[in-house]
Amino acid sequence: MLSFNVDDGYLEGIVRGYRAALLSSNQYLNLTQCESLEDLKLQLSATDYGNFLANEPPPVTTAVLLEKLTDRLVADFEYLRSNAVGPLAKFLEYLTYSYMIDNVILIITGTLHERDAAELLDKCHPLGFFDSMAALTVATTVQDLYQTVLVDTPLGPYFKNCLSSHDLDELNIEIIRSTLYKAYLEDFYRFCTTELDDVTAEVMKSILEFEADRRVINITINSFGTELSKDDRSKLYPTCGLLYPDGVMRLARVDDEDAVKGVIESYANYRVLFDTSEHKTLEDRFFEREVALNKLSYMSQFQYGIFYAFLKLKEQEIRNIVWIAECIAQNQRDRIGNYVNIF
Amino acid sequence: MQYYKSLATNPAALLSYTSAVVTVIALYLLFTGYGEAFNVGYYLLAISPYMWASIGIGLAIGLSVVGAAWGIFAVGVSILGAGVRVPRITTKNLVSIIFCEAVAIYGIIVAIVFSAKLGNVSPLTFTASHYYTGYSLFWSGLTVGLCNIACGLTVGLTGSSTALADAHDAALFVKVLVIGIFGSVIGMFGLIVALLQTGKAAEFGA
User: Where are its TM segments located (chain A) (predicted)?
Assistant: First the structure.
């Protein structure tokens, strides 16, 4: 705390400025009342986004909107990353690893289905770019991939547990994705709790524990009706959450969603996730809780949690705006209110 | 060789080794009748009161300025960062920097008042009053210096929070600034105590 401002005080001020620019519930209400996407563009120009769609040829589509919103997010994040030094630079790098994992899986899947390499690279998330990404398009087996490309990337250490899988088919690729993400989450948790200061550790701990538990519940529910054995399923569960070890052990043995609900009943914080009143699905409840935890991180000063929270809250805002835009474009206004309010 | 290398890297081992050596030497002197050679009092009296007084003055201004500078950089960086999106906060929040500067001013007041007590005395005629002045200037200087480090830090870190709170919501500025104002009183306490400590110290050269 005493020397936090030396290296990171400026970026903290910048990130708090970004956070203040996030849309409020009033602004979302204004967006829901727009008649067309042109109206939406006008409403957005009155916010901090300004004239970001000004150079686009009309008519504005939701795909273009999503692309421009993501570009703004990437520009903001890259500004932070280029000005960061020391532990903050490493922390921001960790944030990009989840996008790298998504990109790697996207390219492998696309190559398997024989899509064009340039088209695949276009679809990748800009925050997850690494130099040798184009070389992934010559993927055959995981060992090959690893030895030629991935061993030099920051994702190298996360491949330890999936080098044993042989063929790259649909199920296996999902298992590879989950194994990579598990390794990344546990490594990030270890980094935040051991190598950074206490305040960051406290803030990131609650956020990452929820993320781990969310993965556990999602993997469990998504594995019903697939060929994934219970042993394989329990190997994919991240161990840094509140559900570890007994919740995880019980969830490894369940067979349907009611049983999952039964296991989660004993965890007071997560009971509300399965509350199906107000037409909210489990996904909605997960997003709501994630937004609440990320908002809470801004209550402490002199810690790095606000950078992680900014990234996630901005992504949620992009999801909200695109949802509203899609509802307007397809003229299905009955579910337009299904976004997660941030402020 | 390994043993000496490990001593260099492990501070706890070095400390225990050194204290063992010192204890052995002390006990040797004690048991062979040279216990009186370890004369702390003679050593203290042999140090000129000019030395104590001057170090005190140096600590007064030096440590106060460290506190003030620490505070100023903490506030300044937050004002810069938050001022990118909300430029209106940049002028108002200079008041936090002024409070930090006041801490350095306390230090310089004390240093000037103390240096007025220095004068010209021949070392052969040091009296108890000269020693008293020397010691009280040293400890007062240390008092005001340490108090001002604490004060500068307090005002600086709360000033940083003030800038960020103001950028978020202009109504919060005065409320959070009050915290910093209470913090600046700590430096005032140090100043008052230091002046009280040296109140009875006579000038050198009397």
Answer: none
Within 8 A of B164 by CB-CB distance, chain A residues are: 12-13, 16, 301
pTM of the complete model: 0.90
Question: Which residues of chain B have a CB within 8 Å of the CB of A16?
Answer: 81-82, 164, 167-168
Q: Provide the total of helices (H) and of strands (E) in chain A, helices listed first.
A: 14, 0
Q: What is the pLDDT of residue A276?
A: 76
Q: Is B167 within 8 Å of chain A by CB?
A: yes
Q: Are A174 and A108 in contact (CB under 8 A)?
A: no
Do B76 and B129 share a domain, yes or no?
yes
Same domain, B66 and B160: yes
Spatial distance between the Cα atoms of A169 and A172, rounded to a whole number of angstroms: 5
- pLDDT tens string A249-303: 899 888 888 889 888 888 888 888 888 777 788 899 999 999 999 999 999 999 9
ipTM: 0.88
**Residue ranges in chain A modelled with pLDDT below 70:** 139-140, 142, 161-170
pLDDT one-digit tens code per residue, B138-184? 999 999 999 999 999 999 999 999 999 999 999 999 999 999 999 99
Query: Are the Cβ atoms of B167 and A21 closer than 8 angstroms?
Result: no
A228 φ/ψ angles, rounded to the nearest 5 degrees: -70, 120
Residue with token string 């307090």: B154
Say which of B86, B160, B168 has its CB closest to residue A5: B160
8 Å CB contact of B77 and A2: no
Q: Which pLDDT score is estimated for B125?
A: 80
Write down the domain spans for chain A. 8-330
Residue B141: give the domain boundaries. 40-198
**B31 and B44, same domain (yes or no):** no
Q: What string of DSSP letters covers A192-213?
A: IIIIS-HHHHHHHHHHHHHHHH
Task: Check whether residue B104 and residue B49 sit in a common domain.
Answer: yes
Distance CA A150, CA B166 (A): 46
Q: Which residue of A has its CA nearest to B80?
A: A10
Q: Domain holding B139: CATH number?
A: 1.20.120.610
Minimal Cβ distance to A5: which of B74, B84, B85: B74
Domains held by chain B: number: 2
Query: In whole angstroms, how far apart are CA A92 and each of A73, A85, A108, A212, A225?
Result: 14, 10, 25, 19, 38
Chain A residue with Cα closest to B153: A2
User: Which among A10, A16, A18 is the nearest to B77, CB-wise?
Assistant: A10
